[in-house]
Amino acid sequence: MNILSFTNDNEVLKLANDTDAGLTAYVFTRDLARAEHFSAKLRFGEIQINGVKYGIDLPHGGIRQSGLGCDCSYLALHDYLATKRVSRALAN
């Protein structure tokens, strides 16, 4: 876990995104617009704002060296399923 001081939002976003990891980022702020801005700009599989919220119904996934895809929730089912197309011409 890293806690860094910073002088402006662009600086901290650059520091946060300059990593090989990409599982979860945490943002603590009282400013909703700032929270939404950071959520849009941070490149992580999860963004936790003002605390930790986990549940079996919530997708859990990372990017870069933190993995690909999601586990938990219905989104994880796509990793275990294959789409199959069957076409057949009907005889007259």
UniProtKB/TrEMBL annotation:
Q: What is this protein called?
A: Aldehyde dehydrogenase family protein
Q: Which residues form the Aldehyde dehydrogenase domain?
A: 2-86
Q: Which organism is it from?
A: Devosia algicola
List UniProt keywords, sorted A-Z: Oxidoreductase
Pfam families given in the database record: Aldedh
Coiled-coil region(s): none
Highest taxon listed in the record's lineage: Bacteria
What the entry lists under InterPro entries is as follows:
Ald_DH/histidinol_DH, Ald_DH_C, Ald_DH_N, Aldehyde_DH_dom
